[in-house]
């Protein structure tokens, strides 16, 4: 019997095998999804909420007020979009051009540099389907998918029976965790867990490169050379290896140069690929769409037909320097996620918040538009953590507008 499967937009994996039961336009039961996905798919609400100064208004008033804020601003900030569709992200880029805005997303302080390097072909890439079917050695570096992406190991990276890995984790696959603590993923990796101190990843990389070259590996924190040599031997034997890069590794390195050297060293001895452990369902989509338009993945400023790029155009630096005078926040909550010393500067400018959920940012916004959840209440296309585009349809109907519909209305009002 044919089944209708849905796509879960709860994380960057975009699992496409989800079954749901709904009643009176409300999701009642979710099958196959992980705990993150189940909670995400059940978030929907039917009624729309529009607020100005925390007071209920109609749709037209909220759109008009939002357009007025952007029109009167000399340097507005547009931020977020990690949970919006590719179609919405392209509209946001167009809106940023139209309003001479600063445009950024969470990748400027997480995995953006890794995605940018992939788009510049500085790393060898592969898909999650390749991992499931071919990978014999996987490294989770500074990542704990057992908690951040709960189906990652079971659907793709360790437990599944792939077309070329029919004997699965018992005989065909080796999983390795490198982290500052013994995470749930590290426990699954057993003896293949390598604990490094905070900030020690660059040194560990140097030692591992030495081990791959047959030299005696050394670290200032006295990691046993024998263990690094054992790891190097496992990696040398990989027929299809994958490094899953998490925030832990990115935050530990001053730049990606050590990672470039490691991947070159690995590919001199074996066959290794890299995938960033993207959290938001479409952060990679934003990076790719902006890269296609500007050559950059985040932190840009549109001005007089030109595009400027640099850390000063990231949300962190722009708020710190108080160079933006209004903000449109889409599907993000910077008042919760950024340091208070920086985020508090948002309270000094008019903010428009578009979000399916009520957040600290939405409560403090001049205008709040309660939008539909992408993948649950609205359809479109998103880009998976490995760069594969995934199309999805809404699971239930809602009176709430999608991010795309709201942006279209704001642009018309402008």
From TrEMBL:
<dbReference type="GO" id="GO:0022904">
    <property type="term" value="P:respiratory electron transport chain"/>
</dbReference>
<dbReference type="GO" id="GO:0016020">
    <property type="term" value="C:membrane"/>
</dbReference>
<dbReference type="InterPro" id="IPR016457">
    <property type="entry name" value="Formylmethanofuran_DH_bsu"/>
</dbReference>
<dbReference type="GO" id="GO:0015948">
    <property type="term" value="P:methanogenesis"/>
</dbReference>
<protein>
    <submittedName>
        <fullName>Formylmethanofuran dehydrogenase subunit B</fullName>
        <ecNumber>1.2.99.5</ecNumber>
    </submittedName>
</protein>
<dbReference type="GO" id="GO:0003954">
    <property type="term" value="F:NADH dehydrogenase activity"/>
</dbReference>
<dbReference type="GO" id="GO:0018493">
    <property type="term" value="F:formylmethanofuran dehydrogenase activity"/>
</dbReference>
<keyword id="KW-0560">Oxidoreductase</keyword>
<dbReference type="InterPro" id="IPR050123">
    <property type="entry name" value="Prok_molybdopt-oxidoreductase"/>
</dbReference>
